[in-house]
Amino acid sequence: MTTNTVSQGRSSTRTPSALDNFRPLIVDVAVPLGSYYLFKGAFGMSTFAALAWSSVVPAVRTVWSVVKERRVNGLAGLILVVNVVSLLLSFVSGDPRLMLAKDGAVSSTVGIGILVSVALGRPMMTAGMKPFLVKGDPAKEAAWQRLVSGRAAGSVDFLRKERTFSVVWGVALLAECVARVVGAYTVPVDTMVWLGGVLMAGVMTLTFLVSGGLAAGPMEAMVRAEARTERAAAGAEVAVAA
């Protein structure tokens, strides 16, 4: 076996780090959303221009995944759809309340996408949650894989809580959308401009707490327990072999 072969084998079996796991969420969600606010706030671009430029990354990612990987990148595609819908709505002018209400399109589209991913058996929020539970620990990474594959004793409960985590976020984002639309047509425009940001911050904080208590917290405990069980089993095998 050559040195290159050994190197390739080690590389292929390398445990993904927290950055590796979190990179898709950063590239597909954080970059396009962050660039939108950067273009609009820091560079003074119009809403239309900011949305157009922030659509470049998800558009490239979506095309790349279809052409090279022969699959649709869910997060990138979802953000691209949201941006395109917002671009179309940006053509509607003269009604400030409609412009405020359209901000809910982001929350509602993402929320629906998350709920659909749960129905399809591939909860979308797992990509963002996993790095915080595994923390780059190889033992916890292995424990996670056993739990999600159904090979661990607690797999059924673990998978149920994984779905719960995404459902909580999907429902929360839909509720935030409804609140934005209602506020846009019932609250004074000047008030709703700043209230929208407060509403988003409040929903995010509450959702973090609820999803953490119902799903992420128990799942982290299950990952730790599974990792300890595997270590104990490995230790017992070594003792028997000795």
Number of strands: 0
Q: What composes the largest sheet?
A: none
Quickly count the helices.
11
In round numbers, the mean pLDDT is: 75
Structural class: mainly alpha
> Stretches where pLDDT falls below 50 for ≥5 residues?
1-13, 15-19
Order of helices and strands: HHHHHHHHHHH
Give me the Rg, rounded.
Answer: 22 Å
Rough shape? elongated
Give the fraction of residues assigned to helices: over 70%
Percent strand equals under 5%
Cα(first) to Cα(last) distance is 30 Å
Feature tags:
11 helices; mainly alpha; disordered N terminus; 0% strand; 242 residues
Tell me about this structure.
- By secondary structure, the chain is mainly alpha-helical.
- The protein has eleven helices and no strands.
- The protein has helices at 3-12, 18-42, 47-54, 56-67, 74-90, 96-101, 104-119, 126-134, 138-149, 155-186, 189-241.
- α7 (104-119) runs antiparallel to α10.
- The protein starts with a helix and ends with a helix.
- Mean pLDDT is 75; it is low at 1-13 and 15-19.
